[in-house]
Amino acid sequence: MIRLYLKPLHLKEPHLNLSKAPYLALIFGFIIVILSVLLPVQASGEQIFIAADSQLVESVETFQFRSPLEHKRALELAKTLRCPQCQNQNLIESNSPVAKDLRLKVYQMINAGSSDQEVIEFMTSRFGDFVLYHPKFTPQTYVLWLAPFFILLLFGLLGIRSIRSNRREDKA
After folding, report:
1. If you count DSSP H runs as helices and E runs as strands, how many of each does the chain have, helices first?
2. Which residue from 118, 136, 125, 124 is spatially nearest to 73, judged by alpha carbons?
3. What tens-digit pLDDT sequence spans the chain (172 residues)?
4. Where are the beta strands (DSSP E) in 85-164?
5. For a tag site, which of 13, 77, 115, 144 has the least CB within 10 Å?
6. How far apart are CA 115 and CA 121, in angstroms?
């Protein structure tokens, strides 16, 4: 039988002042969560899906646009709409037949002079808010938008409560 003897950690030793460690960890955690919520990561023009992009160039070149600006606008709009069949891919990345039909519809609507909002309204009327990567703030989506803040508040309150109970135990 092997026994392991450990020397107890005494917090009163001057070189081991750990009384502020829980506060620093809590503050650091809050900063990370707040930054991740407030500063969304955006690609800086780099293409992430190389295979999808090469297929995209081939398929988009078959559509005739009146201007390169409309072409770019249609691509950007199709990247912001989710494929109803694939769920985690946008219309550009997806190779499903539904996505191909919806890409064609987006390009046709842009060519016909529809605004981005009109295209989005058409897609949401047909497939619901599911096709939007950033759903609107409506009564149906309150939980979706507010749950992260309530969870953050709950963890903050539990952290403060834990720190206070540890202080009481240290004083006793």
Report:
1. 6, 0
2. 118
3. 555 555 555 555 555 455 666 676 777 777 777 766 666 544 444 444 444 445 544 554 467 778 888 888 888 888 888 888 877 888 888 888 888 888 888 888 988 888 889 998 998 888 887 788 777 788 877 888 889 999 999 999 999 999 988 888 887 6
4. none
5. 13
6. 10
